[in-house]
Amino acid sequence: MPSLTLTEFKITSTGGPLGAVVTGLDASQPVAPEVILQLKQALRDRHILIFKEQKLTDEQLLNFAFYFGDLYVPPDDVPVLASQPGVTPVVIPISNLDGGYTGTGELAFHSDHHWTPKPSSGSLLYALEVPSQGGDTYWLNLNLAYETLDEATKQRIADLQLITYNPFLRDKNAPRSKYRLDRNIPLTSPVFPHPLVRTHPESGKKILYLDYATEVEVVGLEPQEGAELIEQLREHLNQPRFYYQHKWSVGDIVYWDNQATLHYRQAFDPNERRVMRRVSLAGSRPF
Ligand code: OGA
Ligand code: MN
């Protein structure tokens, strides 16, 4: 007989520009087909799903993630977060403790693996320990950012291709640049242009496929013109009306669509502990 204390499965919109909260689901256990389909539909509509009160092992987290796709594996010559020569861990420790990644600093709005030939479709981040303050993550709706552009800008950018340079290949001593202005500096990395306006592979929605701070270059535009355009677009997309701010609780899993959103993390006190596990899912070539 089912226990009366079991809460009912429910998907509730955050009410904001993106995001839905999922309760009454145990991600450590096999999930019913109709529930998986509802989750996929909700992800298409709301771009991020926030699962509450989860408790799972790495293996269970992976098994849950695989309902939505295959593991993201970078090409051998394209390093990404946590890459070791030849291998990238399957479940990545996002943590400020020894052996973890991303430290305690602010992370600018980005999409995971944007600079690779087939960027990740989505990532899942599972919170094991959270700081008492700071370390919130924000997700930003890039379909809304696109839709709210003026018509002239939409037309201007419709067929442009953008190169996003791999931050894991850049010279750590070089000054930070948000646009590649100096074409005399030799390229250190293989580059993969993607449409600046991409079409979401499931929903068909138009996405402004640009992050906030990684070095980029618009193919075919003079450096100054490209830099000004990108600055204007970045100013536009970085608006609170496009984002949802998540304050983490232990046991949260957030599953986000890297094809439709950016994410940002607040800095937090290095004396506190923030321990999370991340799984990224494979994606397809942007179109
Ligand atoms: C990531 C990431 C944000 C955070 O794991 O890809 O950007 O809040 N993390 O830790
Ligand atoms: Mn990230």
From TrEMBL:
SUPFAM superfamilies: Clavaminate synthase-like
One GO biological process term: sulfur compound metabolic process
Pfam family for this entry, one: TauD
Keyword Iron-sulfur: no
TM ranges: none
Record GO terms (molecular function): metal ion binding; taurine dioxygenase activity
Family matches, as InterPro entries: AtsK-like, TauD-like_sf, TauD/TfdA-like
Record-annotated TauD/TfdA-like domain positions: 17-279
Keyword entries, A-Z: Dioxygenase, Iron, Metal-binding, Oxidoreductase
One GO CC annotation: cytoplasm
Family indicated by similarity: Belongs to the TfdA dioxygenase family.
Protein name: TauD/TfdA family dioxygenase
Organism annotation: Amazonocrinis nigriterrae CENA67
Lineage: Bacteria, Bacillati, Cyanobacteriota, Cyanophyceae, Nostocales
